[in-house]
Design goal:
Length: 301
């Protein structure tokens, strides 16, 4: 959504707040377009509203942003720790807000053979715990790399982590041919170095026939990715307004978590990188663009 359209859309939101008409996917020729739903509630409530009786979704402003203006340093921060066994180098200068988007860019550092994949990571300053729902609309950087949106608190030896997406639209390792459509979602609970993990992959090919994003590859359009962190064991993932897999942990989640986006690569069968260095010079494909992020808490009426 370009800046002009986003500004107009923001004005429409104000009107909708006064005279809102719930979107009914069955009323529009059985088609469901996640871009047409109201921004006042989680997108899945327009597809199939499973909000518990007696509960409502309350917007969390410090974890929401339309990115229509400049970088908001009251909400967002960067971190520059690097993944091991990768050529990744996280730097502040490879992320920002411009033209209505949060952007994270992968660029080439030709001065080194070790950390030549310059990129960035963006965190929320605020943390949140269940019951909550968060979703983001983004378009991937179309290079062999993971575009991510996730929740985390802790470190390698002691953390809770919910990976809403790790997606690679251009796999380069000769396997994982479904990656251009596959949504990789998982969780980690790590206590004193002992790891519990489970995953729940999904695909745009699994969306309902009426969903306008059915079968659409990550690089072909913007997609909406969400997670309903229901309780201390359960996370339901969402893709373009529809349920998209679920995980249930054995140990409980015990930590409040931050929202995070980053862009990184690795020569491994699960990430399915690496890009050619020349690909990082292509400004049409080396940048992940985040249109917005919206977060709600589930509270009693």
């Amino acid at each position: 959504m370009n800046m002009l359209n986003k500004t107009a859309y923001t004005l429409v939101i104000a009107a909708v707040a006064v005279v809102s008409v719930p979107f009914n996917s069955e009323a529009v020729d059985d088609k469901f377009d996640v871009d047409e739903v109201s921004p006042l509630s989680p997108s899945f409530t327009a597809f199939k509203d499973t909000t518990p009786e007696g509960m409502v979704w309350q917007k969390v402003d410090v974890l929401s942003d339309e990115f229509n203006h400049q970088w908001d340093d009251t909400k967002w921060k960067r971190s520059n720790w690097n993944y091991s066994d990768t050529p990744v180098n996280m730097v502040d200068s490879n992320s920002g807000v411009k033209n209505g988007y949060l952007w994270i860019k992968a660029s080439l550092d030709a001065s080194t053979e070790e950390r030549w994949f310059k990129t960035s990571r963006v965190h929320s300053k605020a943390k949140i715990t269940f019951p909550m729902y968060t979703e983001t609309r983004l378009k991937v950087a179309h290079i062999p790399a993971y575009n991510t949106f996730w929740l985390n608190n802790g470190d390698a030896n002691d953390r809770d982590e919910i990976d809403i997406i790790e997606i690679n639209s251009k796999p380069a390792c000769g396997v994982n041919d479904e990656y251009p459509w596959q949504m990789n979602s998982q969780y980690f609970i790590v206590k004193e170095g002992e790891t519990e993990r489970n995953k729940s992959p999904w695909s745009t090919k699994h969306l309902s026939d009426g969903n306008t994003r059915k079968g659409v590859a990550w690089n072909e359009d913007y997609h909406v990715f969400g997670a309903w962190w229901k309780d201390d064991h359960t996370v339901q993932f969402y893709l373009n307004g529809e349920p998209a897999g679920k995980v249930v942990s054995h140990q409980p989640f015990t930590l409040e978590q931050e929202l995070i986006w980053d862009l990184w690569t690795q020569d491994s069968p699960w990430v399915c990188g690496l890009p050619e260095k020349e690909e990082l010079l292509d400004h049409k494909h080396n940048t992940m663009k985040v249109d917005w992020v919206r977060t709600w808490k589930l509270v009693s009426k």
